[in-house]
Amino acid sequence: MMHLSYIFSSLLLSGIQITACLAANSTTVNADIKSISTLVTSLQDDVQYVAAGISGLSWALQVQQDAIALDDMINQGAKDANASAAFGGGGSLDIGLSLISLEPTITKTLQAVAAKNESFGDLGIIVQYSLTQLKADTDTFANAVVAKLDSLEGGIAPGVIASIDKAFESAIAAYENGA
Ligand SMILES: *[C@@H]1O[C@H](CO)[C@@H](O)[C@H](O)[C@H]1NC(C)=O
Ligand SMILES: *[C@@H]1O[C@H](CO)[C@@H](O)[C@H](O)[C@H]1NC(C)=O
Ligand SMILES: *[C@@H]1O[C@H](CO)[C@@H](O)[C@H](O)[C@H]1NC(C)=O
């Protein structure tokens, strides 16, 4: 039995090693941005159902789950961007376009979250905390991505990121009175 568990843990360790050795590149980071976009859209869908009181509670908790999954993906994206070589011409164009299309998705979602500021009730403080965390992690991710973009896209990206930051700030502000 001990032998088996030894083999199992060695397999587990070698698995981890293999994962760590697979270098991330612009394809990985672009796929991460697509996953982030999907998770943002899920959060946007779920937040529509948040209502004040017990009836809306399960949706409020679902939104909190969505926010955690989203934050994990953003952190994964930051790790991959950090581990990737410079994206080069094609990679920078793909990622630049993905970021440009992600921006309105995030902005719309944050507006939807802000519009529910009264419905979240006592959970508003948790929402505000999550938004603050997501904003900080998004900024870390954005910095890691910008560092790998070609100069053209690297010049455009900060404007896109500034719009995303502004949308975060408005959403965070909508939860100031509940805090
Ligand atoms: C990134 O790596 C994957 C797997 O190693 C590979 O299939 C893909 O073509 C690479 N992308 C670029 C842009 O080099
Ligand atoms: C980025 O990479 C550097 C060196 O490769 C490492 O020290 C740093 O912790 C990494 N940061 C993240 C967020 O993964
Ligand atoms: C919700 O947002 C509105 C508009 O920004 C604001 O007037 C209100 O005080 C906010 N409510 C809470 C609980 O923060």
TrEMBL record:
Keyword Protein transport: no
Coiled coil: none
Record's GO cellular component terms: extracellular region
Domain of life: Eukaryota
Keyword Plastid in record: no
Gene3D superfamilies: 1.20.1280.140
Protein name, entry field: Hydrophobic surface binding protein A
Organism field: Talaromyces islandicus (Penicillium islandicum)
Pfam family, any one: HsbA
PANTHER family assigned: CELL WALL GALACTOMANNOPROTEIN, PUTATIVE (AFU_ORTHOLOGUE AFUA_4G00870)-RELATED, CELL WALL SERINE-THREONINE-RICH GALACTOMANNOPROTEIN MP1 (AFU_ORTHOLOGUE AFUA_4G03240)
Signal peptide (residue range): 1-23
InterPro entries: Cell_wall_mannoprotein_1
Keywords: Signal
